[in-house]
Write a structure and sequence with these properties.
The complex is a heterodimer of chains A (484) and B (228). Chain A is an alpha+beta fold and 484 residues long. Helix content of chain A is 53%, strand content 19%. Chain A has 14 helices and 14 strands. Chain A has a five-stranded antiparallel sheet with strand order 4-3-7-6-5. A five-stranded mixed sheet of chain A has the order 9-11-12-14-13, covered by helices on one side. In chain A, helix 6 runs antiparallel to helix 7 and helix 11 runs antiparallel to helix 13. The longest helix of chain A is centred in the N-terminal third of the chain and has 49 residues. Chain A is rod-shaped and about 165 Å long. With 228 residues, chain B is an alpha/beta fold. Chain B has two domains: 119 residues, 3-Layer(aba) Sandwich (Rossmann fold), CATH 3.40.50; 101 residues, Arc Repressor Mutant, subunit A (Orthogonal Bundle), CATH 1.10.10. Helix content of chain B is 41%, strand content 22%. In chain B, strands 2-1-3-4-5 form a five-stranded parallel sheet, sandwiched between helices. A four-stranded antiparallel sheet of chain B has the order 6-7-8-9, with helices on one face. In chain B, helix 6 crosses helix 8. Chain B is elongated and about 55 Å long. The mean pLDDT of chain B is 86. At the A-B interface, helix 6 and helix 12 of A face helix 1 of B.
């Protein structure tokens, strides 16, 4: 794709605007000049026509004729004139004018100014009446009416006008060139923070996240938002990258350890000859190891699915009734509760729709309940209560178990964190359960909080936004299928 | 030889412990978190520490650092799931002697463990010799003047321990601590019988070596003047 240069676009734009202005200015100036000169020309024509009238003399003949006394008349040689008497007889004309010019001049019959062409030149003419008073005395003398025709070429007018405006045109062109040079220099200079910003941003890589926007960019009004958003974007990327790396590292550690268990079990078996009873026992152990590895893989995949799927896409699709899922999960975990000799009280009545997939609500409830069961002392009790307000659904799970140490409490939602490692190893936990719960709750815009007192028990509180009532009807079908 | 395994993965610790017991008849203790592991390691009765890195309580690296700061020279073999170069360098610089990445080969772990114990006793050869008496620690056999000496596993282990420290006085308690796991006190009376049997079998080789009992102080493996 061809790239567009901002500098070039701006320079060309400004220059084009300036050129347009200069051209308009020149046209207006020339028009104005022409107008002024045309008026002056008309006045001059009139004046010359008047001086022509002065040259009209009484002819020394009986027929009241007049003649044009050319000896006293001084007009430019290229001008043409005619003097016509009232009876139509031409009494005089410019001596140097051609016949065609004179004919063209006299062909115009109405008084006033007019333009015409003759001999390939443009002329402006004036036809005006004049009265020559002869023998001026008390009676006023004899009045001799004549018609004066006077014309002068106009071609020099245009040249004069352009001549007068030429200075401005040259100045305009020079200004244009100067603007172009200054613009190019200035734009290059003022865009340098942008280039600097781009260079700094280009230096960022997955191994070197450091990005400090140049001060100039931070102090530039237009660039500051770009610099800040690049900074924020990189910070977010870096954090998620780090999280991902941490997760991959932890996952690799867990998987390698699981494989190490399997491998060492098999190699131990092969160290020497075994009895069939020993083999049978070993196979049992190996199956358990494999089961643990499978659980670990499943949990990691669940976590990856929850953390990676876009929250909006799936969250808005499905509505699940929390209270019915809790009951299903509680029934399913009943054998485990019997095994640990733990009693459960469940307080849930009405529907509690949340916008979370049924599968995820199931994972959430069973993880939390299973945690409570495993950390309960025999003979203890677990109470689950559900309530809702206009905006939220609230689920509280309390146990009378051994509690969580205060220094472990801030870390319990971290992936692969185990508050009591040897114990969770035995119970098969990989430290992913609560991370998965938090992932599920976070995704629907809810919150999960754990409070605990050592020796007294743990209290988990989950708050999730209440779903709109529209899709709850479908839910019963889903839960009915799940329970069957 | 007595070995301490600090590993939070219970099944893995059990497997390694069983392998050492089966193959070398070692006494093995297991700890499943860093704090318990460190307090056991502090006692100093061990000939080898096998240490996982990611441990609850205290991580493996800090245990290594603390033990070495205290002047403890027990060989340490690290089990790690991470095999980045820089990480390994850090471990060895902190004072670890060797490392294996998970999943490891059990046979390799046994061999490396044995080599570390040997090196820890200042011995390079897998065959220990004292005068005409030679002990092959790989085949776990003892020869006196190229004649095989038939020993029971416990007798072999007593002789092996004494051969690592020839001519030095080894107290009964030390012998017990290094040959048995944390329940060593139960074996207190039995060991005298084992030593007595060993002494008899060595005498049968023609007094190539003899186990002296030094009253109130312990035992000493020495070569009689005549056979030197």
């Amino acid at each position: 794709m061809k790239t567009r240069s901002l500098t070039r676009t701006l320079t060309v734009g400004v220059l084009a605007a300036e050129l347009l202005c200069a051209a308009l200015f020149s046209v207006v100036a020339i028009a104005h000049e022409m107008h002024d000169r045309a008026r002056a020309f008309d006045v001059m024509l009139n004046g010359r026509a008047d001086s022509l009238l002065g040259a009209v003399q009484d002819a020394e003949d009986p027929d009241d004729n007049v003649v044009v006394d050319q000896t006293e008349l001084v007009v430019p040689p290229q001008d043409a004139y005619e003097v016509i008497m009232a009876n139509g007889r031409m009494v005089g004309h410019s001596p140097g004018s051609s016949a065609t010019l004179l004919a063209a001049l006299s062909s115009h019959t109405s008084f006033g100014y007019f333009n015409f062409m003759a001999d390939g030149r443009h002329y402006r003419g004036l036809r005006k009446p004049g009265i020559r008073v002869i023998d001026r005395d008390e009676n006023g003398g004899i009045r001799r009416p004549v018609t004066l025709l006077y014309a002068a070429p106009t071609s020099h007018l245009w040249h004069q006008a352009v001549e007068a405006v030429r200075f401005y045109i040259i100045a305009g062109v020079l200004l244009l060139l100067l603007t172009g040079v200054i613009m190019a220099w200035f734009l290059r200079r003022s865009l340098s923070p942008l280039r600097e910003l781009a260079e700094r941003a280009a230096r960022v890589s997955t191994s070197a996240w450091e990005f400090t926007p140049p001060d100039e960019a931070l102090h530039t009004h237009e660039l500051e938002p770009i610099a800040s958003s690049i900074q924020a974007l990189l910070l977010g990327l870096q954090q998620s990258f780090e999280r991902q790396r941490q997760f991959t590292g932890d996952a690799a550690h867990e998987l390698k350890t699981s494989i190490a268990v399997l491998k060492s079990s098999l190699q131990l078996l092969a160290l020497r000859e075994r009895t069939s009873t020993e083999y049978a026992l070993a196979i049992e152990g190996l199956l358990l190891d494999t089961q643990r590895m499978e659980d670990l893989t499943n949990r990691m995949l669940t976590l990856a699915r929850i953390e990676q799927a876009p929250p909006a896409a799936s969250a808005s699709l499905e509505t699940t009734d929390l209270s019915s899922i809790v009951q299903i999960v509680a029934e399913r975990l009943y054998p485990a509760m019997q095994l640990h000799r733990v009693a459960l009280t469940l307080a849930a009545s009405s529907q509690m729709p949340v916008t979370v997939a049924a599968e995820d609500v199931d994972v959430l409830c069973s993880n939390l309940l299973m945690n409570a069961i495993q950390h309960s002392t025999p003979g203890g009790s677990i109470s689950v209560s559900l309530s809702k307000d206009p905006a939220n659904v609230r689920m509280s799970i309390s146990d009378t178990g051994d509690g969580i140490a205060p220094d472990a409490l801030p870390h319990i939602f971290e992936r692969f964190y185990r508050a009591d490692a040897s114990r969770s190893r035995i119970s098969g936990g990989a430290g992913l359960g609560l991370a998965i719960c938090k992932g599920i709750v976070d995704r629907c815009g809810g919150s999960i909080a754990v409070t605990s007192v050592i020796g007294k028990g743990t209290h988990v509180e989950v708050i999730m936004p209440l779903a709109r009532q529209s899709k709850v009807a479908q839910l019963h079908v889903a839960t009915a299928e799940a329970s069957s | 030889m007595r070995i301490l395994i600090i590993e939070d993965e219970v099944r893995l610790a059990e497997n390694v412990a069983t392998a050492f017991r089966d193959r070398y008849g070692s006494a093995v203790d297991c700890a499943h978190d860093g704090l318990e592991g460190f307090s056991l390691a502090e006692s100093g009765h061990y000939d080898l520490l096998i240490l996982d890195l990611m441990l609850p309580g205290a991580d493996g690296l800090s245990i290594v650092t603390k033990l070495r700061t205290r002047g403890d020279a027990t060989p340490i073999l690290i089990l790690t799931a991470r095999d980045e170069r820089a990480h390994v360098i850090d471990l060895l610089n902190a004072g670890a002697d060797d490392y294996l990445t998970k999943p490891f080969d059990l046979g390799e772990l046994l061999a490396r463990g044995k080599a570390l114990i040997r090196r820890g006793k200042g011995v390079a050869n897998t065959v220990l010799t004292l005068g005409q008496l030679s002990l092959n620690s790989v085949e776990q056999t003892v020869h006196g003047d190229s004649q095989l000496v038939d020993l029971s596993p416990t007798e072999y282990r007593i002789l092996e321990y004494l051969m690592f420290r020839p001519r030095a006085i080894v107290s009964k308690r030390e012998l017990l601590e290094h040959l048995y796991d944390y329940r060593w006190e139960h074996h207190s009376n039995v060991i005298e019988a084992h030593v007595s049997n060993l002494r008899k079998k060595l005498r049968a080789t023609g007094e190539l070596a003899l186990v002296e009992t030094i009253r109130g102080r312990g035992y000493r493996l020495s070569v009689p003047e005549a056979s030197q």
